[in-house]
Design brief:
This protein is 52% helix and 8% strand. The longest helix is centred in the last third of the chain and has 32 residues.
Length: 749
């Protein structure tokens, strides 16, 4: 035992010595994260808007449900009920979130805030790993990772947790699909693929289950472009076609395996995509694109930009922008995959303003299923620019660029900076402003002469710009060419100065906790919100015998989302109706009023139904009734059907009917509901629901006295789970097989 212990310590010591520099740089990124989000970690501030009313409650609900041993098949508390598995933005199958129920950690508001802050740190660590892989210089990787942790999307989009996760996972996705930078080594030597591509299925699965759905589709497209560019570069170097085909086949297989691992998350929504009410509304929804007016966001706060404040920031810090302008022409060819990624991402981020986007989305229609091309693609633009700034940094530090070339490049950078400041801060005097033609030559002249400029803001911008220029000049001119520590420290310090000042101006990522008074017992919820003690677990401690009335929740505080938190039954949600049936109800005042009531069935003897209805029910499982029958439904206890237990995915009734009867209840229909009649003697009989008026759930009860149990299991759920588990087992088995083969080869050598 002592020998084993000493051997373990020796191995640990070797690891730390070998990874000393990487660990120090990782600690630097951790310190940066702690300084940025210190108030968030301390519970003094949180993230605004959608975060406390959507993203936190979604995860709080399902983690509490799993923790109580109940898989959340049906969500009865919101939007009159819907299959929770279709709520993709709740990230039900995102592995890190499963740590909460597995370790019995309540998913409180404070836990949700800390989780998001840690995802930003994970993004910075992934960026470090990517840049180190691409350029083989840990110092460059640190500089780029520090800049990426200041990426504006993390702060402008802070209300949208799934978008933040997509930004954080993006460097890991690129890292796992990068192979052009090295010659053959590792376990995939024959195909000249590095070992890290074996992690691609896991990264794809994390991205698919944790990121915004539109971002995942964008990532699939851009990764295909990135891999294709790398294969093209290999082909230009006259790599054998067999090797290129093998590389493409292996990478495609690994990507497909990752999608299959996430199939339990992706499959249901794709199979039942017609049930999404928003899919039908999508052509009329406004899209957010990155336009020319957003380009100053590369070095300015999002608060200065036009358009949607959460979707327009490209911020990468001034030093990174200046270094990108220093990119040598020779490096463009060498790093063509990154250049291609930048070009494709930029064209797609422009959305409907881009001919390329319009052509690609017509060719690949799923890429058009996102409202936010700006959010889906802009992080790829910013990360590509940060990566391409590294060759510029290298040229600067090793003086591979002459002073004339340097001055020319910086002159272009100064022109871009001046244009950006003029776009944002120049306000010509009202008596000189040509309102009929805002882009007139007069207004442009006023902009460039500085008339009407906001002096305080421009002074700050110019000061930061000059500091960055001086720092780059010192790195180029002072001392011997190379990478001394003082140059790295200077660049990191300037990046942090610029980044700290700019993100502190973004109000979109720090807010005093919203609705604090509503999370006290007086406000109707369970615990003090700011204390960090609250979770949804109390919902599952007891269930009502009969569902109470649904609440509208359209009060001044807009509490339509509270069902996830306290178990109140709500007519709608913070977002739009998730299903087609919900949309049907919303269009009918009669049906909407019926759905508001506590559970009340409508009972119609089958013998009294019209002949057509009697034929449609057994043939197609549908019925269409006059809406007047829902105006005054009979009470359940009087009518012969009584609800005795109402659980999220299971409802129990006591039935006593003199004749075969169609019961319609004020519950939504969705495929997956099924029923079982349980007689007193223990015999059982299956019963399938009827879709009434294209929205409501009905049952045709036979005459008699018995117990009826209705339950919901998403259609094909076991198949989706089997596919995902099977893909995971294939990946694990492949990893073990490759490791054993590699070990045997090393032993032979």
């Amino acid at each position: 035992m002592n020998l084993w212990f000493m051997s373990g310590l020796a191995g640990l010591r070797r690891f730390f010595l070998h990874q000393k520099q990487n660990l120090i740089f990782a600690l630097a990124l951790i310190l940066q994260n702690a300084l940025i989000f210190g108030q968030h970690y301390a519970g003094q501030v949180g993230f605004p808007w959608d975060f406390p009313v959507s993203y936190f409650p979604w995860v709080a609900y399902w983690t509490a449900s799993i923790g109580k041993g109940i898989f959340p098949q049906w969500m009865p508390y919101q939007s009159m009920g819907y299959p929770f598995i279709l709520q993709l933005q709740a990230s039900l199958f995102y592995p890190p979130f499963w740590l909460f129920p597995l370790l019995q950690i309540p998913h409180t508001y404070q836990a949700a805030v800390i989780s998001q802050c840690l995802h930003v740190l994970a993004g910075a660590l992934g960026c470090y790993l990517l840049l180190k892989t691409l350029f083989k210089q840990p110092a460059y990787a640190l500089i780029g990772a520090v800049a990426f942790q200041f990426f504006g999307g993390f702060y402008s989009n802070a209300e949208h947790s799934d978008v933040i996760r997509s930004f954080a996972l993006m460097p890991w996705m690129l890292w796992s699909f990068t192979f052009y930078t090295e010659t053959a080594w590792g376990r995939l030597k024959r195909w000249q693929l590095p070992d890290r591509v074996l992690a691609a299925p896991l990264v794809v699965m994390f991205y698919a289950t944790g990121a915004y759905p539109g971002s995942f589709l964008a990532a699939c497209f851009l990764i295909a472009c990135y891999v294709g560019a790398q294969l093209a570069m290999s082909g230009l170097q006259k790599s054998p076609f067999q090797r290129l085909a093998g590389q493409a086949g292996i990478l495609a297989t690994l990507a497909a395996l990752g999608v299959m691992m996430a199939f339990v998350h992706l499959g249901p929504s794709w199979t039942f995509r017609a049930e999404f009410s928003r899919l039908n509304e999508f052509p009329q929804l406004e899209r957010n694109n990155i336009v020319v007016a957003d380009l100053p966001g590369l070095f300015l706060s999002n608060t200065t930009l036009p358009g949607e404040v959460s979707m327009n920031s490209l911020y990468i810090t001034l030093p990174m922008l200046l270094l990108a302008f220093c990119l040598p022409l020779a490096a463009i060819k060498k790093h063509a995959p990154l250049v291609g990624l930048l070009v494709f991402a930029s064209l797609m981020a422009a959305g409907s303003q881009s001919f390329f986007y319009n052509a690609i989305t017509r060719l690949i229609s799923p890429l058009a299923l996102s409202r936010f091309p700006s959010g889906d693609y802009r992080a790829w633009v910013s990360l590509a620019l940060i990566a391409l700034a590294m060759p510029g940094l290298d040229a600067l530090l090793f003086r591979r660029v002459g002073w004339k070339s340097l001055l020319a490049r910086l002159a272009v950078a100064v022109a871009f900076f001046g244009w950006g400041v003029a776009q944002v801060y120049v306000k010509p005097p009202f008596f000189l402003l040509n309102k009929a033609d805002p882009g007139s030559g007069l207004n442009a002249l006023l902009a460039w002469t500085g008339l009407g400029v906001h002096p305080r803001y421009v002074a700050a911008c110019v000061a930061l710009f000059l500091i960055a220029l001086i720092a780059l000049f010192l790195c180029w001119r002072w001392g011997q060419p190379g990478i001394p520590h003082w140059k790295i420290a200077l660049l990191v310090a300037v990046i942090c100065l610029d980044g700290g000042l700019v993100i502190s101006d973004m109000y979109t990522w720090r807010s005093v906790v919203e609705y604090p008074h509503l999370f006290t017992p007086k406000g109707g919820l369970l615990h003090e919100f700011t204390a960090g003690e609250f979770s949804s677990a109390a919902i599952f401690d007891h269930f009502p015998a009969q569902r109470p009335a649904r609440q509208v929740g359209d009060d001044p505080e807009d509490l339509r989302w509270q069902g996830y938190i306290n178990g109140n039954y709500m007519m709608s949600d913070y977002k739009t109706c998730p299903t087609h049936s919900c949309g049907v109800i919303e269009k009918s005042p009669v049906l909407r009023n019926y759905m508001k009531r506590a559970w009340q069935p409508v009972l119609l003897p089958v013998a009294q139904l019209p002949a057509q209805q009697m034929a449609d029910i057994p043939r197609a499982g549908v019925a269409q009734l006059e809406e007047s029958v829902f105006n005054a439904p009979a009470a359940g206890a009087i009518s012969g059907v009584q609800q005795v237990r109402y659980e999220p995915s299971r409802i129990v009734y006591e039935v006593n009917l003199p004749a075969d009867t169609l019961m319609i209840e004020n519950e939504l229909y969705f495929p997956g509901w099924s029923g079982e009649i349980i007689h007193a003697d223990g015999t059982r009989a299956a019963l399938q629901p009827v879709k009434v008026n294209d929205a409501l759930r009905g049952w045709v009860f036979p005459a008699g006295r018995y117990t009826f149990q209705a339950s919901f299991v998403f259609p094909g759920f076991s198949t989706y789970v089997a596919i995902s588990l099977g893909a995971l087992l294939v990946w694990l088995a492949g990893m073990v097989l490759i490791k054993n083969r590699h070990t045997a080869q090393e032993a032979q050598q």
